C-alpha cells in the first residue's frame, strides 16, 4: 500500500516539475516575444512566473527537502560566532602582511633564478 502512495506521489511530483519547466519556458519565450514592451512589465511578468514556479516546485518532495535544508541552514548560521571589528581588522592585517611577505620572497626567488639562468645562457 505504501509503495502505491509513493508511486502516486512521485508521478504527481513529475507532473509538478513539468509544470515548473513549462512556466520557465513560458517566461523565456514571453520575454523574447514581448521584447518591444517596457522592461518593467517584462520583469514584473518574469517575477510573477518565477513566484508561481517556485510555489509549484515547493509542493514537491524535493522542494520540501530544499525548504527543510534552508530552515536548518538558517538555524546553523545563527550558531556562528562572528568576529568583532577589532578581530576582523587584526586578522585582515595579518593576512595582507603574510601575502606581501610571500610575494616578495617569490619575486626575489624569481629574480635570482632569472639572473642565474641568464648567466648560464649568456
Q: Your description of this structure?
A:
It holds the Pfam family SecE. This protein has four helices and no strands. The protein has 122 residues and is an all-alpha fold. The protein has two domains: 1-80; 82-122. Helix 1 (2-33) runs antiparallel to helix 2 (39-58). The longest helix is centred in the C-terminal third of the chain and has 37 residues, at 85-121. It is elongated and about 75 Å long.
Quick description:
The protein is an all-alpha fold. The protein has helices at residues 2-33, 39-58, 61-78, 85-121.
Topology, please?
Elements: H1 2-33, H2 39-58, H3 61-78, H4 85-121
Fraction in beta strands: under 5%
The span between the termini is 85 Å
The oligomeric status of these chains comes to single chain
The percent of residues in helical segments reads over 70%
Total discrete domains: 2
Output the number of helix runs.
4
Q: State Rg.
A: 28 Å
Structural class: mainly alpha
- Number of strand elements: 0
Instruction: Report the sheet with the most strands, covering strand number, pairing sense and barrel closure.
Output: none
Q: What string, H for helix and E for strand, traces the elements in order?
A: HHHH
Return the average pLDDT rounded to an integer.
Answer: 91
Could you list the spans in which at least 5 consecutive residues all have pLDDT below 50?
Answer: none
Basic shape:
elongated
Pfam family, one: SecE
GO cellular component, one term: plasma membrane
InterPro entries: SecE_bac (IPR005807), SecE_sf (IPR038379), Translocase_SecE/Sec61-g (IPR001901)
Main location: membrane
Amino acid at each position: 500500500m505504501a509503495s502505491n502512495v509513493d508511486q502516486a506521489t512521485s508521478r504527481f511530483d513529475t507532473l509538478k516539475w513539468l509544470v515548473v519547466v513549462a512556466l520557465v519556458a513560458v517566461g523565456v519565450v514571453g520575454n523574447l516575444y514581448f521584447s518591444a514592451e517596457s522592461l518593467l512589465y517584462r520583469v514584473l511578468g518574469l517575477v510573477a512566473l518565477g513566484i508561481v514556479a517556485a510555489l509549484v516546485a515547493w509542493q514537491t518532495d524535493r522542494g520540501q527537502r530544499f525548504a527543510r535544508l534552508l530552515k536548518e541552514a538558517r538555524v546553523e548560521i545563527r550558531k556562528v560566532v562572528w568576529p568583532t571589528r577589532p578581530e576582523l581588522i587584526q586578522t585582515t592585517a595579518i593576512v595582507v602582511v603574510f601575502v606581501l611577505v610571500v610575494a616578495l620572497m617569490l619575486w626575489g626567488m624569481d629574480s635570482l633564478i632569472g639572473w642565474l639562468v641568464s648567466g648560464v645562457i649568456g
